[in-house]
Design a protein that fits this description.
The chain has about 180 residues and is mainly α. The chain contains seven helices and no strands. The longest helix is centred in the last third of the chain and has 39 residues, at about 130-170. The radius of gyration is 19 Å and the shape is elongated.
């Protein structure tokens, strides 16, 4: 439950996560192409369009990676015990699969509806001189920025939520650094 609550709390900060990612890109002097420039402007001015994407991804990555990390820690702590430990591991894996399936469906619906709602805006970009490729790359750049920001925020949130569990079970917070659940 702690991992879920931290993921939900982090997902509520989707607009702030996008704003921070955009500021970091600006400070890093990531200029790129016209498409990247348009994507940064879009994320800065109309971040509400990418917010649902960030919200779903933070929930999915945060809950999934946090649950899988906790299960890996539990497996390390109770490597000798079978029975109930194996049943709990199976239940946790099933929960992650169900969350993944729900989030995949919700994310696909969100992306389709967001692009459909932007049809006029994308047409206007074409009318002011952007090529079809530039418009497509702008949408892809917005998505990549949102995905990377979501992944980083969710991984940090999951790690923070799992640290107390790792300390209680193994006596060290270093078990949180296992990259496998995050991948």
């Amino acid at each position: 439950p702690g991992v879920v609550l931290v993921a939900v709390g982090t997902a509520l900060l989707a607009a702030e996560i996008l704003g921070l990612a955009n500021r970091l890109l600006g400070k890093a002097s990531v200029r790129g192409t016209a498409s990247v420039h348009l994507a940064r402007i879009n994320l800065r001015e109309v971040h509400q369009r990418s917010r649902p994407l960030v919200t779903f991804l933070v929930l999915f990555i945060g809950v999934s990676s946090g649950t899988l990390t906790m299960q890996a820690i539990e497996n390390d702590a109770n490597s000798n015990s079978g029975g109930i430990g194996a049943v709990m591991a199976s239940i946790n894996y099933l929960v992650v699969v169900l969350i993944a399936a729900f989030m995949a469906i919700a994310l696909a619906n969100t992306i389709v509806s967001a692009i459909a709602a932007r049809r006029e805006e994308l047409r206007d970009l074409r009318l002011v001189g952007a090529t079809a490729g530039q418009v497509r790359r702008t949408v892809v750049a917005e998505g990549v920025i949102a995905i990377l920001a979501s992944a980083v925020a969710a991984a940090v949130a999951a790690a923070v939520a799992v640290i107390p569990f790792a300390i209680a079970k193994l006596g060290t917070p270093l078990a949180v650094l296992n990259p496998v659940p995050y991948v």
